[in-house]
Amino acid sequence: QVRLAESGGGLVQAGGSLRLSCRASESILSANLLDWFRQAPGKQREWVARITTRDSTTYADSVKDRFTISRDNANNMLYLQMNSLKPEDTAVYYCRYAISAPPYGYWGQGTQVTVSS
User: Fold this and answer.
1) Is the dihedral of CA 66, 90, 14, 72 positive or negative?
2) What distance in Å separates the CA atoms of residue 30 and residue 53, rounded to the nearest whole number?
3) What whole-number distance in Å separates Cα of residue 84 and Cα of residue 12?
4) pLDDT tier at 107, thresholds 50, 70, 90
5) Distance (Å, rounded) from C-alpha 94 to C-alpha 114?
6) SS3 call for 75
């Protein structure tokens, strides 16, 4: 059982920045994939960014060039640096720790990000 705890959300004006953190109870080196997702009110949860064990990163088009995902293996931390925030980035942000044997994803409780115009 992997427990994840997100933090760092809050209220920010458009154009501002926030850094989200996700602390894992187990070594993140055991995760095949580490992702950030978000869910806005009334919408489905959507994928935001991914980082692999080899530090390869990919991003949703909507956040590319504004958000940066990173990891700290020594401290079992996952981060999401969010710059140039827009009101449409308002959502609850979740980290996910995915393993492959068996295929399963662990989720945190989420952290609220609100961007005012």
Assistant:
1) negative
2) 9
3) 10
4) very high
5) 14
6) helix
Give the CA distances from residue 66 to residues 41, 49, 63, 108, in Å, rounded to whole numbers and listed in that order. Answer: 22, 11, 5, 23
Q: What tens digit of pLDDT does each residue of 31-64 get?
A: 999 999 999 999 999 999 999 999 999 999 999 9
Q: Please tell me the distance from the alpha carbon of residue 117 to that of residue 97, in angstroms, as a whole number.
A: 32
Please tell me the distance from the alpha carbon of residue 91 to that of residue 93, in angstroms, as a whole number. Answer: 6
The single residue listed with the structure tokens 């059982």 is 1
3-state DSSP helix/strand/coil % of the chain, to nearest 5 = 10, 55, 35
Give the rounded distance of the alpha carbon of 84 from its chain centre. 16
Q: 24 is written with which tokens?
A: 């894992």
State yes or no: pLDDT of 100 exceeds 90. Answer: no
